[in-house]
Amino acid sequence: APAIRLEDYSPAPYTIEAVALDMQLAPKATQVHARLTIRRLTDTLPGTPLVLDGGGLELTSLSVNGVAIPVESYTVTPDKLELLSPPSEPFELEIGTRIDPDANTQLEGLYRSSGTYCTQCEAEGFRRITYFLDRPDVLAVYTTRIEARKSEAPILLGNGNPVESGPVPDKPERHFAIWHDPHPKPSYLFAMVAGDLAHVADSFTTRSGRNVDLKIYVEHGREDKCDWAMDSLKRSMRWDEEVFGCEYDLDVFNIVAVSDFNMGAMENKGLNIFNDKYVLADQDTATDQDYANIEAVIAHEYFHNWTGNRITCRDWFQLCLKEGLTVFRDQEFSSDMRSRAVKRISDVRLLKSHQFPEDAGPLAHPVRPRKYTEINNFYTATVYEKGAEVVRMLKTLVGADGFKAGTDLYFQRHDGEATTIEAFLACFAEVSGQDLSHFALWYEQAGTPLVEVESSYDATAQSLTLQISQEIAPLPGQADSKPAVIPIRFGLIGSDGADMSFDKVEGAEVRQDCLILSQRRQTVRFSGVSERPALSLLRGFSAPVKLHAPEKDQDLAFRAAHDSDPFNRWQASQTLATQSLLRLVRAAEAGEELVADSVVLDVFGSILSDGSLDPAFRALSLQLPGEADLAREIGKNVDPTAVLKARDALRAALGSTHMDLLRAALSQRESGPFDPGAEAAGKRALANQALAYFAASDASDAALIVNDLFDRADNMTDRLAALTLLVHGDLPGAQAALEAFRNRHETSSLALDKWFMVQATAPLSSTLETVRDLAGHRLFDENNPNRVRSLVHAFATGNPSQFGRPDGAGFSFVADHVLALDARNPQVAARLLTCFRSWRAYEAQRSSHAEAALQRISEAENLSRDSRDIVDRCLQ
Ligand code: B3K
Ligand code: ZN
């Protein structure tokens, strides 16, 4: 497939101003009739052909201004409809197409999930419903008439506001509904849903007094699992008014939860469609992490109403315009709902574990890519999470007031438009008076800058000098890099633990507590520094960079106890643990005895016993860097078995050293009614973190205590935590617990996903065999993306030592699944395939096995464009 390039962008020669769709639903033959009001743009020569996109369509009728058109005036294939000489005046084009929702296994366009008709149009799914200018810069007003058998689909939903509904004359078994969306929108935001669904209802009054009916639609019997989602929705709506001044703009807001969905959720105008994983929750089936995710995803999709829908993207290269900004907005929302420090730490952990490896390997791309062959492969951690970090840096640079003024201007100036990153940045440059042209490099350049800092203190001169450099390692298609604008928030910590003052700074711009780097190499000199400080750099993770500032274990321990910035306090303990673990990895590789460093044991002990700290923060600080995090730090010649051994050794040492503290922490587990809020969740996280170390210790009653907790747990968080420890630790009782869990949750698909996932992520040599068996289990369903993700994806991404088995069997198993999936659902297959992206970082034997698996995929016939793109880039 040819690459599509940003530099080739040009507007379509025609525009579509209005769309009237009539959809006659039937499982195997849905008839779609589209009436498009089309206008030639003034720059377009009369007679210029009109080329509409299609995707596997069957044309059943075609007319212009009400008259069927002769065959010689158009050409048609399933993927394209071309009018050779359209009228030069505005005209109505009527198109009939027939589609087969039941045969749609790729879950793009119109498909059925457990019998419910639903759609997914972003990025290019609308063309699988009718021929269209299926690109985000064509904004039309949509009216949708949906007709279906009443028994099959009593609920008929569309975008916008409901207009009319009723029985179909002369067809007593059928009924219809008409929906009208007054806000012009791109085709990717089109949606319709039809099915036999239950719902819960609520309402929201906007700040200007508009009443909005809120409904969440779910499968019958699941109504009692919608409370948290509804509550999150109302809090999102209020927050967006208060913080961003964004008010909702329709009479209704509908959410539909479906069980077969390629991604998390979709922000269709007025009709969000969700993976039910991000809607349904109750004490018995959802973990605290699930509750937090639901809150965040509900907010994210709702926030798209302004950042994405009212203001959309000119082309798909601008995807980060809506995604980076909306992720930033949902992160801020969660920070306001929960602990800001804890949210920041969780977000940075996610960025480092998902985005950093992407940005360091063959799939690296700029936040705004310059070319793609399959746009669905660019819904990445770089576009989303790094995109959000770039918005966060923008806020740091222009300040909170400048940022507010900038977003106000953006909403006012670009409302109703499809626009670009340049237009977005111009708003902030204008209100702040700052030149942001150098900053724009963050959208253009791939790779994570490595910032290296060497410091020296001169006691006589009372000055501190920092030698700072920044550099991005070469990447495919990016041999060298340019220095970026990097805001480094910092503090100089004195021996009393307090931040010290200084007189002046030379060699870099400093705004308040922020050092602004902009050159490849800079020497920065602080004067009036009264003693040698502990240097706290990159506070709050103020830029998405890798920071190397050599620091002794003792200094890290000091900052882990005293840094006034909670993020860096956490980071200090993590860096300390990482340094220690890397030494253990080297020892494991050399076959030496693994002895944990006492300073790490001490620091963890202090955190464990410091009751003045927020429990959620303590739980995060006690969590060791993951196996994949360590592999990333090692960077090359990685042996995942040695990494696992090192981590196990430190966990065991921590457990055995602090057994008494751990017992005490365990006894503090709270009872009483379940509360899904952040505070109660933090206490559970801490208790379960303590339990994890206890289980790893040499305590003779460890297995007993974990089994007991499993039996007594009255909520999913605790039950799953105990089950994970039993299964991953291969403890007595594991098999019985798995069986009890499966019996208990047999009818809850989302809970069963966890049963698959726990087994897939066990770091045991028997796991691959278990996973193979599970793939043939009666409860496994290769057509349900959540189930595939919970087994195969979880194995490939959440089990480094077993996916990366030295015999290559883990790679081979995943490759088999990629190939089998690819024929049915290319998007899910291609996403799974990205788990190979760091294959070159393995030691020689493993990397040659991984390469062979990729080669095998590459040689398959009829590989989808999605998987072809990923495999080609991985092997390049
Ligand atoms: N915009 C959708 C993602 C669509 C993915 C298409 N492959 C969800 C979101 O980011 O909110
Ligand atoms: Zn989004």
TrEMBL record:
UniProt family annotation: Belongs to the peptidase M1 family.
Residues annotated as domain Peptidase M1 membrane alanine aminopeptidase: 228-439
Residue ranges annotated for the Aminopeptidase N-like N-terminal domain, each copy included: 91-189
Originating organism: Roseibium limicola
Keyword annotations from UniProtKB, A to Z: Aminopeptidase, Hydrolase, Metal-binding, Metalloprotease, Protease, Zinc
Residue stretches making up the Peptidase M1 alanyl aminopeptidase Ig-like fold domain: 447-549
Name of the protein described by the UniProt record: Aminopeptidase N
InterPro entries (UniProt xref): Aminopeptidase_N-like_N, Aminopeptidase_N-like_N_sf, PepN_Ig-like_sf, Peptidase_M1, Peptidase_M1_dom, Peptidase_M1_pepN, Peptidase_M1_pepN_C, Peptidase_M1_pepN_C_sf
The reaction(s) this protein catalyses: Release of an N-terminal amino acid, Xaa-|-Yaa- from a peptide, amide or arylamide. Xaa is preferably Ala, but may be most amino acids including Pro (slow action). When a terminal hydrophobic residue is followed by a prolyl residue, the two may be released as an intact Xaa-Pro dipeptide
Domain Peptidase M1 alanyl aminopeptidase C-terminal, first and last residues per copy: 553-876
Enzyme class: hydrolase
